[in-house]
From TrEMBL:
The active site is at residue 132. Removes the formyl group from the N-terminal Met of newly synthesized proteins. Requires at least a dipeptide for an efficient rate of reaction. N-terminal L-methionine is a prerequisite for activity but the enzyme has broad specificity at other positions. It comes from Candidatus Avidehalobacter gallistercoris. This is Peptide deformylase. Its EC number is 3.5.1.88.
Amino acid sequence: MSCYTVIELGNDDILRTKCVAVRRFDERLKQMLANMAETMYDYDGVGLAAPQIGVPKRMVVIDVGDGLLELINPEITAADGKVLGVEGCLSVPEQQGYVYRAAKIHVKAQDSAGKFFEFDAEGMLARACQHEIDHLDGILYVDKLAHPSQAEIDALEAKEE
């Protein structure tokens, strides 16, 4: 396996590109996913989307502490609620900001063999899925920065304690 270099905002237009669907489910794809996961772990991230390594394909890897999740051609088919959280991004190093995301989502995707699967997510997994899927449409968390009130920030911090 090998690590990729993560593209940083301002260094490549691919981060603003709408990615194309994956059509070939072969060993090359599996190797790319393995390399993406290694890169994500090496950079100490919880998610990585293909455009962040210069590949305009609809695929992401995520691990919020529950094991590796590979999502090919993912889409959010339902969303409910709204929650404020702090986000960062490997493509926007050493910065964080407040972003509102859906509290609960339903995701449909394919695995590395092309088989469809679905799951519900909430909490950190829901946030990570939304963040990474946004990358596939050329959207970064900095495009969605919120300006919460001090009361909202205090409530978020109290919830995290």
